[in-house]
Amino acid sequence: DPAVFTATALPADPRLLPTVTNAYLGTRVFRDILHVSGVYSGATGDTHRADVPSPLNVRMVVPGMDNLAETFTLNTRTGTFSHTIQSTGYVATQQIYAHYSLVHLMSFSITIRRLDHSTQPITIQLQTSFMPQSQDLDLTPGPDFQGAHYIYGQTLVPEVEGGPRPTVHMLWTPVPLSLTLGGEEQERSWEFLTSVAESEEEAKQSYSEGLSLMATGSLHCSHTHAWAVMCQGCSVELDGPLALQQALHGCLYYLLSAIPPQDSSGFLFHGISPGGLSNGTQGEDYWGHIFWDQDTWMFPNILMFYPKAARAILEYRIRTLEGAMCNAQEQGYKGAKFPWESAATGREVCPEEIYGAQEIHVTGDVLMAFEQYYCTTQDQKLFQEDGGWELVEAVAQYWCSRMVWSEDEQLYHIRGVMPPDEYHCHVDNSAYTNAVARRSLNFAAEVARALLLPVPEEWEDCASKLKVPFDAERKYHPEYDGYSPGEPVKQADVVLLGFPLMHPMSAEVRRNDLEMYEPVTDLAGPAMTWSMFAVGWLELKEVQRAQSQLLKCFNNITEPFKVWSENSDGSGAVNFLTGMGGFLQAILFGYTGFRITRSSLHFNPAFPRDITKLKVSSISYLGNKLDFTITMEETRMEVTETSQDPLASPLEAVLESGQCFSLWEGQSVSFPTGPGWIQRSP
């Protein structure tokens, strides 16, 4: 089963252990700490995810037994990690999981099952280094509650002076030194529950809810059911190489573990960091900060399947708008400048000043996510009532104030920046930065018109006259003013103009950009890079060239649990969701050719010959859900769920030839595989 990863030994590097997370809690299996979403300790550049002691760090051991067979399994279909010890007379299984829908709960269970007719008691020892203390929290023990131990405490240092210090409340089932299956028993299970919340009431309520489910034997199955429902709503399956199928299942497991469940009203989501909730302690995985990684690399995949979860990511940015406005003001600009590294407040928390000061493209990346969401959902409420317009307006104001007019070129310039390629800094007119700034301004004008608000002339003037470097002789985009062809580049930069920015250019220029930057991009650079080269070559129908780029990603996938490392030598962040997000986009936007535009969802499939079929289920578009089944010869699509808006027109598929198919719920249409788009019927 390509969705189940099994090994007889754990990786030597504990960073490569699989994670069990939900939208609120996260840990690596057999790790002594867990993290809580949005709970950071430390001031500005020192702020990091606060370490909470983890009661889940328990290992089964059987001393003195040599003939034991051990297996370790991550089952991405059930969202559960298990450790099994088997001897001739019994099997003992430990299951560990973060409950997907009851996000304040994590649990592990141990089951001992007799395999023979003996009547000897069977004892499994439990090993744990758990101590109810933390370097980041001032923890105090409270009275036991329904058999659980209880601690609570505040983080030690606020992110900004005078700012909030979150409180963590934790209840957990005490763990004995050993468990024994009695001589008359054939099988027995023990369940251990951990509940974490920012209020005592929530922690106790969640613990009680967990106990009620345990009493009916349905705690774990309530988790696996919620996980299965979520997985049904975002399936990407292909008939092709096993390694590719496994990589897909691994990426979907780790990324989708991080998103809020569908019925999580009232739950405040605090974004997704490059290494996810399981990582981000001090000095690790960028301290758990939120980067453009979330908005550019992870967000588009989430949006295509789960617009509600995508909205929660945007709401995180809206809640941190005030901090972003302070960042702009501190640097002498108007509007909002989103931080290169964000935690709870939106203030810049990058420990190195140069990135926060110069890597300003992140502000455009944030707005690009808002634009993709708007085009895919037409959710006016987010912009009219829930703070979206204020953010859009503030970003437009920032870009206008950040530009200077060049009398020589009669164009606006953005000077002194670091592009996505971090090997260069203090450059003028980064092609990517300026293109994303222009896109921000065009989108801001569009939203203003949709909301019947006046569009400032300055926005349209700055957008139309902003320089995006282009070499008319060589017909390619220099990375910035003065870039010399052949200069080494750290990661995907100019190639992002084609996708996701969809900056206007001919196929010849798109090819030239790919040809120019592919050989000079650092092979040891971050994992998401090669996915974008793959998408570019797929756009040009150079399928084998695309595949050779995508295969480079496999250097970053570690065995046996498909945990990604940021760099191919194993260094950098681990459980690198950014690389996984890029890889998923190569499948979801590359193989299918999906492109989100103002009025339609385009498709133009292309994939290698060793993939015979690609099936993408539950794509969300304008309130509808669609299934796509694509082979080299034929594309079949079906609307499985229609928009709840009674005034919305039904969808139709239009082929480049002009042929048109109405899309009615429950009816599939098929046509020869080729380019086209989906739109609302006129």
UniProtKB/TrEMBL annotation:
<dbReference type="InterPro" id="IPR005194">
    <property type="entry name" value="Glyco_hydro_65_C"/>
</dbReference>
<dbReference type="InterPro" id="IPR012341">
    <property type="entry name" value="6hp_glycosidase-like_sf"/>
</dbReference>
<feature type="domain" description="Glycoside hydrolase family 65 C-terminal">
    <location>
        <begin position="595"/>
        <end position="642"/>
    </location>
</feature>
<dbReference type="InterPro" id="IPR008928">
    <property type="entry name" value="6-hairpin_glycosidase_sf"/>
</dbReference>
<dbReference type="Pfam" id="PF03632">
    <property type="entry name" value="Glyco_hydro_65m"/>
</dbReference>
<keyword id="KW-0326">Glycosidase</keyword>
<dbReference type="GO" id="GO:0047402">
    <property type="term" value="F:protein-glucosylgalactosylhydroxylysine glucosidase activity"/>
</dbReference>
<dbReference type="InterPro" id="IPR005195">
    <property type="entry name" value="Glyco_hydro_65_M"/>
</dbReference>
<dbReference type="GO" id="GO:0005829">
    <property type="term" value="C:cytosol"/>
</dbReference>
<dbReference type="Pfam" id="PF03633">
    <property type="entry name" value="Glyco_hydro_65C"/>
</dbReference>
<feature type="domain" description="Glycoside hydrolase family 65 central catalytic">
    <location>
        <begin position="278"/>
        <end position="484"/>
    </location>
</feature>
<comment type="similarity">
    <text>Belongs to the glycosyl hydrolase 65 family.</text>
</comment>
<dbReference type="GO" id="GO:0005975">
    <property type="term" value="P:carbohydrate metabolic process"/>
</dbReference>
<comment type="function">
    <text>Catalyzes the hydrolysis of glucose from the disaccharide unit linked to hydroxylysine residues of collagen and collagen-like proteins.</text>
</comment>
<protein>
    <recommendedName>
        <fullName>Protein-glucosylgalactosylhydroxylysine glucosidase</fullName>
        <ecNumber>3.2.1.107</ecNumber>
    </recommendedName>
</protein>
<keyword id="KW-0378">Hydrolase</keyword>
